[in-house]
Design a protein that fits this description.
The chain is α+β, with helices and mostly antiparallel strands and 823 residues long. The protein has 22 helices and 46 strands. Pfam families: Aminotran_5 (PF00266), MOSC (PF03473), MOSC_N (PF03476).
């Protein structure tokens, strides 16, 4: 045991690891979560994990018993009904809700439960829907029902103005601050009050037991105080009766609301958040009196006692559960709940709460202590300022952003990508909680609108706009999380995002100011740099072929990435989606004018004539935001490719009629066209250049980082799918080159190539293998502003001398000298 863990246990030993349970955390991880070996899973707020014993019990149950549709009187139906009744009682027990006062309505999840409340709540023009800013979109969505019925909707912030442990029941325990009021059709406020609200209406107040963005835990004594109107700034009882809804989807996994103490009218949950399985099943725990006020319009199978098809006659069932559960419930999922609750009951929710809380407290403290070499903080953690008693009022969630030593932000997508390379699972974005996101990140309404107008939407890569983060990084702990998970995450932060003191000569980091190459063409050869190899990739994401020489066109290397495969849904197929593409071999014979294609899954070799118009359909496709004019091939060709990759697809060729324009000013008074670069299916630059010396340096780093016990990883240039490989330069000198002259051809550097997971794919004995390398090692020293750069992208300058409009075909040839310029 390391000293660090000893210190951790000295501080948290009473709470960590379930010391009083039949099985401790180390045994649970070793026996129930073997699949987590080598993985750090820190997204329990998104979905926690199921245990092996739990799933074995589910499988045994389903194999041993016959469960039928519960809407009948057969033995199998009655067995299902009995199980459902038992499951309802188990859910109520979990929330300490008396079956005399509450009912459990099964839904497809917490969102469906919230939607049910919104649909059935008796909204009127006198009603008000009030909700905290820190709420999930699924809670915000209820306002659409309220506003559509003429009700008022208003978001609020809640501030604790006293310590709950000293002031329980105080009228001034909370202060409520309203945001702008929403109502369709007319203004609702007169002199700052809810003018149109009368005393006979029903109103709804919604808040989460724990904010899924920040982890801030709301004090559940809010329930009684809201219902009694005893919060500062809250409408009085004269303005109607208030019902309270708690979104417990996040909080119930570690601290379910105790409804015997805090008698909310509605509580929603999803069971996969508690014990991982089943998904697609949640519950609305509803107070009997509240259920009687809900007005349900639709009826369905299972909800009626009797109905007549051709006249307006229906009698709904009296049971609350049967009235609100439309159709057949997910009874096999319901039958599995008892197996999930088994491990929770063994550990107890109080022990789970303490276990996860101590991990979060430990990591939060360590993160706040991380500093760059210049003394500036690395981590900005959100949510702690929300409570005067931060540790006790924070759940096992840490949401943060990271800053560089120059005070600029690391984008959250960069953090997520680098974490994935380290086997760390976390979540980024706003987590469907726009109010908390805006509140903690300091985003104004104008910021949010301008971000949207700039193209930012949920789940995209626009993580920093105008110098401000658009979201954050979130880690969260679950009942099976360990100290080792916490330590691996902290080591990852330190290794990947904390600047350290460096020697002046620190290898070949991304420092564009260190190199001082000559910029005169005649003096440009700093060493004997030569063109080592040329590779053409006719079909995007398929194998290429090497040549000794090859012609250039306006699109770069002739026929390079001129074809691609499109899936049946219109998506572009790449190796990241379809690894089988890597086994398809290609070759072009310029003399024969043919493209030859082979696959180990196809008996015959496919032959495509380069000049013959064998296409039968012209269309436009979108490839990563760029529109292309394409021709497709006949069914015979498409069938061949579908067999080769094991899925339906269409083979397409880029049309020769479309061009992309970019102006490049030539050297020595040479005039370049508004370079009509033909649209081939390249992602960015027309050619990719890789240096052998850079590959050698990468391999030396891979060797030193693997250690004695790990398998040696060696990569060659072909792993990066380059068009040209050069030798004779210093490692990473290519970063500084602005222009290149090879043979008679001139090229412009478009900058470094941003690498992705595709370089981690390789073939072994006909199988496509995915590893973490070399991208993980590249990320440790070749990362710049969210990009992991290796190799440089080039565009061919198709230039003309004088007024002659004749284009002379130029060729690249292996062995040619490479001249470079930094200007």
């Amino acid at each position: 045991m390391g000293q660090s863990k000893e210190e951790f246990l000295e501080q948290f030993g009473r709470d960590y690891g379930y010391p009083h349970a039949p099985r401790g955390i180390d045994e649970i991880r070793a026996t129930e979560f073997k699949r987590l070996e080598g993985t750090v899973y820190l997204d329990h707020a998104g979905a926690t994990l199921y245990s092996e014993a739990q799933m074995a019990d589910v499988a045994k149950d389903l194999k041993s018993n016959v469960y039928g549709n519960p809407h009948s009187q057969s033995d199998s139906s009655m067995a299902t009904s009995d199980l459902a009744t038992s499951a309802r009682h188990q859910v109520l027990k979990y929330f300490t809700a008396s079956p005399r006062d509450y009912k459990c309505i099964f839904t497809s999840g917490a969102t469906a439960a919230l939607k049910l409340v919104g649909e059935c709540f008796p909204w009127s023009r006198d009603s008000c829907y009030m909700y905290t800013m820190e709420n999930h979109n699924s809670v915000l969505g209820i306002r659409e029902y309220a506003l559509s019925k003429g009700a008022t909707a208003v978001a609020v912030d809640i501030e604790e103005v006293a310590d709950p442990s000293k002031s329980y029941g105080s009228d001034s325990l909370f202060k409520i601050s309203r945001h702008s009021n929403q109502r369709r059709g007319e203004d609702v406020y007169q002199n700052g009050s809810l003018a149109s609200i009368s005393g006979n209406n029903l109103n709804l107040f919604a808040f989460p037991s724990e904010c899924n963005f920040s982890g801030h835990k709301f004090n559940l004594s809010l329930v009684k105080l809201i219902k009694e109107g005893k919060c500062m700034g809250f409408p009085s009882q004269k303005q109607g009766q208030w019902m309270v809804l708690i979104d417990a989807a996040k909080g119930c996994a570690t601290e379910p609301p105790n409804l015997a103490v805090c008698p909310a009218d509605f509580v929603v949950c999803s069971f996969y958040k508690i014990f991982g399985y089943p998904t697609g099943l949640g519950a609305l725990i509803v107070k009997n009196e509240a259920a009687s006020s809900l007005k349900k319009t639709y009826f369905s199978g299972g909800t009626v006692a009797a109905s007549i098809a051709d006249i307006d006659f229906v009698q709904k069932r009296k049971s609350i559960e049967q009235n609100f559960e439309d159709g057949t419930v997910s009874f096999l999922s319901i039958s599995s709940l008892r197996h999930g609750f088994k491990i929770i009951d063994m550990l107890t929710t109080s022990a789970i709460s303490r276990h996860t809380a101590c991990l979060a407290t430990y990591v939060r403290k360590k993160m706040l202590g991380l500093k760059h070499n210049n003394g500036k903080n690395v981590c900005r953690i959100y949510g702690q300022q929300a409570s005067k008693v931060a540790d006790r009022m924070m759940g096992p969630t840490i949401t943060f952003n990271l800053k560089r030593e120059d005070d600029t932000w690391f984008g959250y997508r960069e953090v997520e990508k680098v974490a994935a390379l380290s086997g760390i699972h976390l979540r980024t974005g706003c987590f469907c909680n726009p109010g908390a996101c805006a509140k903690y990140l300091g985003l104004s309404h104008s910021d949010l609108v301008s971000n949207f107008e700039a193209g930012h939407v949920c789940w995209d890569d626009n993580d920093v706009i105008n110098g401000k983060p658009t979201g954050a990084v979130r880690i969260s702990f679950g009942y099976m999380s360990t100290y080792e998970d916490a330590e691996e995450f902290l080591k990852f932060l330190w290794a990947s995002f904390v600047s350290k003191a460096m020697a002046l000569n620190n290898g070949y980091m991304l420092n564009m100011n260190n190199l001082n190459l000559l910029d005169d063409w005649s003096q440009q050869v700093v060493s004997d740099i030569r063109l080592k190899s040329i590779t053409i990739y006719p079909v995007k994401s398929c194998q290429g072929f090497s040549v000794q020489s090859w012609p250039l066109t306006t699109g770069g290397l002739k026929y390079d990435r001129e074809w691609l495969l499109q899936g049946s849904g219109g998506e572009i197929l790449t190796q990241k989606k379809v690894p089988e593409l890597s086994s398809i071999r290609t070759m072009i014979d310029l003399e024969l004018g043919k493209l030859f294609i082979e696959s180990p899954k196809c008996k015959d070799k496919l032959q495509i004539y380069l000049l013959e118009n064998s296409t039968h359909l012209s269309a436009e496709v979108d490839v990563y935001g760029q529109r292309y004019q394409v021709h497709s091939y006949n069914d015979k060709v498409n069938t061949w490719f579908s067999e080769a990759i094991g899925r339906p697809c269409t083979f397409m060729r880029c049309s020769n009629t479309n061009y992309r324009s970019c102006t490049i000013t030539g050297r020595r008074d040479r005039l370049c066209r508004d370079t009509r670069s033909k649209l081939s299916f390249v992602n960015e630059g027309q050619l990719l250049l890789i240096s052998e010396e850079s590959i050698s340096d990468l391999n030396s780093r891979l060797s030193s980082s693997n250690g004695k016990d790990k398998q040696q990883v060696v990569v060659d240039a072909m792993r990066f799918r380059p068009n040209i490989v050069i030798s004779g330069s210093a490692p990473y000198n290519e970063d500084n080159w602005k222009r290149l002259h090879i043979g008679e051809a001139d090229f412009t550097s478009m900058g470094g190539c941003n690498r992705c997971q595709m370089i981690n794919l390789y073939q072994n004995s006909g199988q496509v293998i995915k590893s973490k390398e070399p991208l993980a090692t590249l990320a440790s020293y070749r990362r710049q502003k969210g990009k992991i750069l290796f190799g440089v992208l080039l565009n061919y300058e198709d230039c003309m001398d004088g007024e002659d409009d004749t284009v002379v075909e130029k060729w690249l040839q292996v062995g040619q000298e490479v001249y470079t310029s930094t200007e």
